[in-house]
Fold:
Amino acid sequence: MEKYTNHTSVAALMNRSNVDTDQIIAKQFLKKVERTGFGQHLFHDWRFNEDGTPNAEFELNNPKFDGAKVLVVGDNFGCGSSREHAPWAIEDYGFNTIISTSFADIFYNNCFKNGILPIVVDADTLKALMSEISANQGVEFSIDLDKQKVSTPGGISVSFDIDGFRKHNLANGLDDIGLTLAHTDRIDSFEAKHKETFPWLWVS
Amino acid sequence: MAKTMYEKIWDAHFVHQEEGQAPLMYVDRHLMHEVTSPQAFEGLKIANRPIRNNHSILATLDHCVPTKLADRLNLPDPIGAKQVQTMMDNCQEHGLILYDMKSKNNGIIHVVVPEHGFVHPGMTTVCGDSHTATHGAFGALAFGIGTSEVEHVMATQCLPQLKSKTMLVKVDGKLSKFSTAKDIALAVIGKIGTAGGNGYVIEYAGEAIEALSMQGRMTLCNMAIESGARAGLVAPDQKTIDFLEGKEFAPKGDYWDRAVTYWKSLPSDEGSKFDSVIEFRAEDIAPQVTWGTSPEQVVPVDQYVPAPGDFENEGKAIACKSALDYMGLEPGTKMTDIEVDFVFLGSCTNSRIEDFRAAAAVAKGTKVPSRVTAIAVPGSYLVKAQAEQEGLDKIFTDAGWEWREPGCSMCLAMNGDQLKPGERCASTSNRNFEGRQGKGGRTHLVSPAMAAATAGAGRFVDIRQLDNS
Structure:
C-alpha cells in the first residue's frame, strides 16, 4: 500500500446522498479474481451511456475534475454491500481522499486498507466545501493528514478526526496483518484459554 | 456492572490492545463465498502466510451460480465460471469445507450456515458479505468485512476492531398476523434511516421479537445492515436452543450442556445501558412496501407514494425526487395501484422454509397474470427439498411461478437472473438500490406473503384485504 502524503489536488464534487456500493462498482464487475483494474468501471451506470460513450451529464465526466484526487460527496457514502471492489475502484480511478458528513461502516474500514482517507466533516462545512467547488470548478483543496486539516483557496480551514492507529498505518502505508501477527504470542495464549472455556467451538 | 449482550461477547473475545492501536478481537467463525474471497487467498499466497485455523471456515457458492439447472451444469459466463473454479481450488488447497454446486448442502451462505448449526450464541462471526448480520439472530456478534479483512482473519484469526455503540430497538405488543419480521425490519429502517445505525450494534428486543421464530429473527437481523448498523442481535432463548440441538456443528454430549448454560448467560443484564433506545409498537407495523431506491423509502401498503415536499430534510426531499424519477412513479399514487412485471421470492433475507410456506399459503389457488414473471428461488437445496416434500413447489408452479435451483439469484443479479430496464419487481430481497436487480430495474421490497399476493394480482395488494377467515 502506498504511503498517504499531504497533497494539494483538484476536488471533484458529487452532490448525491446515500451513494451505495452497487453504484460505485456494479455487480457485473465483481467476478474478477484480481484486485486491479476496477477504476475503468467506477460509477459505471451513471458514467456511461447505453452505447458505452461517456455520459456528459455525469459529474465526474466534467473535464474540470480531471486528475482529481479529492472527492466531495453527500451523506452516508458507501452504504450497502461490503464489497472492497468499491474502494479498489475509487483508488484505481485516482482518488485518495473522500469528504462527506458520514460514511457507511464497512466502506469506511475498507478505505483505510487501500490508502484512501475518508474525512468526516459537519453538514455546514460540507455545504461550504461544495459551494466552493461549484463556484470555482477545478479548485484544488489541500489535505494535511499530519495536522488533520483540510484547507481551500476560498479560506475554509477545517480539522478532522481520525483514529490514531489508522492514521499511522495510512501515513506509513502499513499492512496491518503484519502488525497483528506481531502479537502472535498473545493470540496463542488467548486461544488456549478460549479453548478451555469454550471447548465446543473446536468440535466439528 | 450490568452488561449488554454485545459487551459480554466483546469481552469474551478481547485478545489484546497495544498502545496506539485498535483492540484485537478474536474471530470464532469465518464464512465465505466466491465473490469477496479470491483476492484474499491471493494476498496470503503472495505474503506466504498460512491460514491460522481452517476449521473456523465454511464456504459455499451462491452469488454467481445460475438458478436454472441447465446453466448450473455448464456455467454460461466464463468470468463467473473462473471465480467459481477459483473458490473450489482455494478450498481444496487449504482443506476448507465447501458446499459446492453438487453438494446437497449448497445454497446461500446465510441460509446454509444456520441449517448446519455452524454459528452459535456468543460467537464472533465474520464474512466478506454485509448480510452476515443474519447470524445475530442466534445472539452471535456477526458482521460483514472487506476482502482485506478476510485475508486478515485467515492469517491471524483476529481483527483490529473499534468498539461499537449500542442501540436497543424495542418492539413490544403483538404483530398482526399479516405483518412479519420483514415488515418490522422495513418499519425500523423507515424510522431511523439507512444511516441511523451507523456506528452501532443493534439489539432487537421486546415481546414481538421474542415471539418471532428463529427464521423471522434471521430476516430481521439480516436487514440490520440496511440501517447502517454493524450488526444486529437477538438474545438467545429456548427457541434458539431448540433450533440448534442436533445440528451437525452443534455441541454434542457434555459440551451441549455446558454450551447451553453459557448461552443462557448471554442476554443483556437487567439495568444494562444502551447508547440509544428506540421503541415501537408491533400493532402499528402494517405490511410495508418500499417506493424508492433506498430501503428507508418505505410506506405501509395502504399508503401513497410521497412527494418531495413531504420531507422536511432537504437531502431527503432531493433523494425522493431522484427516486421517483428512477422508479417512474408519481407522488400521490396509491401503492396498491402500482402494477409489477416481476416477482422475486428468495435471497438471504427471505428464502427459508417458513418464507415459502407463508408465500405458498397466499399463492394457493391464484394465477400469475401472463404479463408477470414470478420466480421462487429456495435459499438452499435443503429448503428446496423440504418445500418439495410439502408440495409447495406444486402450489407455486400451479399458480404460474417458476420453481428454481438455490442461489442469490435476483437479489443482486450477477448470475443471469435480472430485470430489464424499466421493469418493476416486487422482491423479498433486501436492497432496492438503483440497478441492484439489473440496470434500470425498479425494485420494491416486500415480505414473502406480500410478494405472493402481488404475483397473483399483478399489482401490490394489501394482504389484510384478502383475509376471509
Remarks:
- The mean pLDDT of chain B is 97.
- Residues 308 and 319 of chain B are 8 Å apart (CA to CA).
- The first strand of chain B starts at residue 14 and ends at 16.
